[in-house]
Amino acid sequence: MTADAPSSSRSAGEEFAAPPLPLAGEGRGETVAAFDEEHRGASRRLHQFLHDNPTVVPFIVLLLAVTLFSLIVGHRFFHPFNLSLVLQQVTIIAILGSAQTLIILTAGIDLSVGAIMVLSSVVMGRLAVLNGLPIEIAFPLGLLVGIACGAVNGALVALLKLPPFIVTLGTWSIFGALNLWYSRSETIRQQDVEAAAPFLQWLGTAFRFWGARLTYGSLLMIALAALIWYVLQRTAFGRHVHATGNDPDAARLAGINITGVVIGVYTIAGLICSVAGWALIGRIGAISAISGAESNLDSITAVVIGGTSLFGGRGSIIGTLVGALIVGVFRNGLALAGADALWQEFAIGLLIIVAVAIDQWIRKAAS
Hints:
- By secondary structure, the chain is mainly α.
- The protein has one domain (56-366): ABC transporter involved in vitamin B12 uptake, BtuC.
- It contains 15 helices and 2 strands.
- Helix 9 crosses helix 10 and helix 14 packs antiparallel against helix 15.
- It is globular and about 65 Å long.
- Mean pLDDT is 86; it is low at 1-17.
């Protein structure tokens, strides 16, 4: 009995013994892991927000650009005449950018938008001014030229499965050659257009609005953007466009006619380019076969800076308008500040690289 007493005492002591003290550093790893997880969660939420709202970054860039140039240039930047000048300068870019947005949303690209614009303007101008056709005939024929050019691009991409970059690079040269052949490299003077077909210059007509001088071309740009926004956000065709750009195989399995969507998008883009040709005549007053030489790259610039992904499926027409305004604000602000034209192009090129880098970052983080 005496031998069992120590054993019972040890058992009782062990039962009520205090737990061992934690080793040095033990428990802090869990705190660090929780902090890292919380940090990664906040970062991922930010990435997802930017992915779902692609116009946020362009709006911030536009706000910063306006603030920067207002500090550098002063009150001249906010003068109503200067602001209206910026809006007029971006009208053509924004209209072509609207066409480019539709195509890039399907993961394509169109390098021929500028050539289609100029060819359409030359056709409607020469038919109305030099050939004497009524504007009721000449103008629709010019629009049909843009539709036909867009349909050709779409058919080559969708039916023959050719890369959009290569296809439109080739048609850019073809449409440009047809333009020079048909126009004979001649420019129709502003006075001749005004006398024979003043309707072609109507979009360049200015009116006063709160002290600013606006044109009907700018109103057309806004109305066209509103229409495209409605189509992309509120119609089945718009959902099909986004689905085609996101994952064409999944869209095909879901019953979407991918071929029809791609051809339709390029055809609509061709029509928009011909409308841009009409706006171009109103902008310069005359009809020139060599105008709009940089429109192809400018349209892509506006779309990319506006947050539309070059990989398709993500973007908005509002972002394109903001991107066009960013291009216009940078060029106008640098010009008012006395910078050479080469530095304007340098700034635009830098913006393109930054925009693509941000798009890649958002895509990787949200995937």
